[in-house]
Structure formats: structure tokens, C-alpha cells
Amino acid sequence: MSNVIDEAVKTLSGRLSDGFDGSAKFVIKDEGAIVIDQSGVREGDDETDVTLTADVKTFQAILAGDLSPTMAFMSGKLKLDGNMGTAMKLGSALA
To answer: How far apart are CA 2 and CA 39, in angstroms?
Structure first.
């Protein structure tokens, strides 16, 4: 597991300690993927309701609270494939 993925799993696990209603995957270019679902947060590439793709810099800015997921999406830095409603719930959980 890359350091970026490892840190992201730790950070998101703390924020989503009760799991997540739905399933989402963050694909971080050149690093790997993280799955978030009812079971928690883990490294993985499972099929999910929504897939969000970003580069490392964008993903880290979202996690740090320096960039909202909505602004990242609107500016084209965050790509979305799948259920927009699930993505919006995840965005609210990350804020």
C-alpha cells in the first residue's frame, strides 16, 4: 500500500467510523484506490455505487479541507462515474 493510500485510509476511517450508507471508491491516480462502504474504509478496487477519480494533489487537498469535493468536481479536478446522490452524501461526510 502506498503512503498516500495508507494515510487516506486512516484519515477517512476516523471521519467515517460508523461506516457509510452506500459504497464509493476513490481512485487516486498513480497510487491506488480506496473503497468506502458500510464496513468502513479500506484499500481496494471493488465495484461501488460511485467512483471518484483525482490526482494526488487534489485528493490530499480535499482530505485536508483545503478544497471542497464540490469545487473539485466543478473545476474538473475530480471526476465522477456513477450515482451522484451517493457522491453528494460522501461529500457531506468529508466536510
So the answer is: 21
User: 16 pLDDT band (50/70/90 cuts)?
Assistant: confident
CATH code of the domain containing 30: 3.30.1050.10
* CA distances for 15 relative to 9, 38, 74, 77, angstroms: 10, 13, 24, 22
Helices (H), 1-95: 3-15, 56-64, 69-74, 84-94
Q: How many domains does the chain have?
A: 1
Grid coordinates belonging to 86:
451517493
pTM of the model: 0.90
Q: How many Cβ atoms sit within 10 Å of the Cβ of residue 29?
A: 13
Range of 65's domain? Answer: 3-94
